[in-house]
Amino acid sequence: xxxxxxxxxxxxxxxxxxxxxxxxxxxxxxxxxxxxxxxxxxxxxxxxxxxxxxxxxxxxxxxxxxxxxxxxxxxxxxxxxxxxxxxxxxxxxxxxxxxxxxxxxxxxxxxxxxxxxxxxxxxxxxxxxxxxxxxxxxxxxxxxxxxxxxxxxxxxxxxxxxxxxxxxxxxxx
Length: 173
What we know:
Layout: E1 3-5, E2 11-13, H1 15-68, H2 76-88, H3 92-96, H4 104-115, H5 118-134, E3 136-140, E4 143-148, E5 157-164, E6 167-172
Antiparallel strand pairs: 1-2, 3-4, 4-5, 5-6
Helix pairs in contact: 2-5
């Protein structure tokens, strides 16, 4: 800031220069506030962007798994027959592969536990064969439902199949 002296020795302030400096300080302060506000607002937006990218990556991985999956039939009935055939052979590893991918491991463990109890395993296999032969089927789009009621039972059961890419998989058993 420039000052000048009058003949009496009193320094005068050059208000024009003084105002220019304060305008620059004021503009910098507004700019800093805008940057801070933008950073605070960008946090949630960046989090959503990261979540979206992670979801897309997981979706791509799952789609790749399904594209390479060779287990399941071209119809829900064919998948169900393959599942029952694997159970008849005692191959719970193969039988579990006819489920949607995210349920395969749980079903592999469950079927292995059921297989260790032959009476329960035989009963389950008999029920699956009964369902195959007696179920009422309904298909809508990429879902199919097989509904059946075991003899002597009042409450029916339902199997749900899902078509993923070109293969039908068991979703609910």
